[in-house]
Amino acid sequence: MRKVTREVTDAFFNRRPRKCGNTRTDGTTIWLHGNAIARHADNGDIEITLAGWDTVTTRERLNGVGRRASFSVFRDRGVTKVNTYDRGHDFELVWHDAIEMPHGEWINPRKFVGQFADK
User: Fold this and answer.
1) Long-range contacts from 11-17, C-beta under 8 angstroms, 24+ separation
2) Beta bridge partners of 39
């Protein structure tokens, strides 16, 4: 994880403002190049979006959030996907099926992937 991602993500989860390079947070939302990419929803959940910029940097920043919120954003054969995981027995990771991530929409990764888990 890049230093900028770690610092901004730590501030985001501690609900404090922080600016580092091209990324900033007010403690509620994370912006990359002025585009909101992650936020704390009113109910306390984490919501994410590619904000129309499906780039390596956007995915890296979102994965910084995902390390704490138990999700991962990645490319698979040209398609950006999101998946979630839980801690299983003996703390091993139990991954759930990956689902294509919509462009330009806010999603809650835990609920978004979960709605397709049994299909």
Assistant:
1) 12/38, 12/40, 12/65, 13/68, 15/40
2) 29, 47
3-state SS of the chain: helix, strand, coil percent to 5?
Answer: 30, 35, 40
pLDDT in tens, 21-67: 999 999 999 999 999 999 999 998 999 999 999 999 999 999 999 99
CA dist., res. 34 & res. 31, Å (int): 5
Rounded to whole angstroms, the Cα distance separating 59 from 39 reads 15
How many residues are there in the chain? 119
Domain range enclosing 56: 3-114
Q: Which amino acid is at 17?
A: P
The pLDDT score that the predictor gives to residue 118 is: 42
Q: What is the C-alpha separation between 76 and 8, in angstroms, rounded?
A: 27
Say if residue 11's pLDDT is above 80.
Answer: yes
Q: 60 — phi, psi (to 5°)?
A: -65, -45
Beta bridge partners of 48: 38, 107
Q: What is the pLDDT of residue 95?
A: 64
